Amino acid sequence: MPARIPNVEMIKALIMAAGVAGPDIKTLEYDRLARMNGWPSLSAIKKRFGGWEIAKERAGIIKNESFCEDCLENKDCNIKDLQDCPYNDESELYFEPLDI
What we know:
mainly alpha
């Protein structure tokens, strides 16, 4: 059985893909980029978050909000800014977008 991909890794992949294709990235474009870069699959992301638009929202792509991994586990989280999150570990979420 494959290891479970952490939510934060899925979020990073979504943000990197949006950095390449723009915030209105479509599923076909994400799928192409994910295959090229070894990112989590589109189907895994949709299953984990309950849909593509929900996943983009959780990644902060739609509403320009960020969430830490602990908040992603709590669907009732009301934190809208990562800096306000008591579980914030910015070093875990920080990355440079890929220049593809």
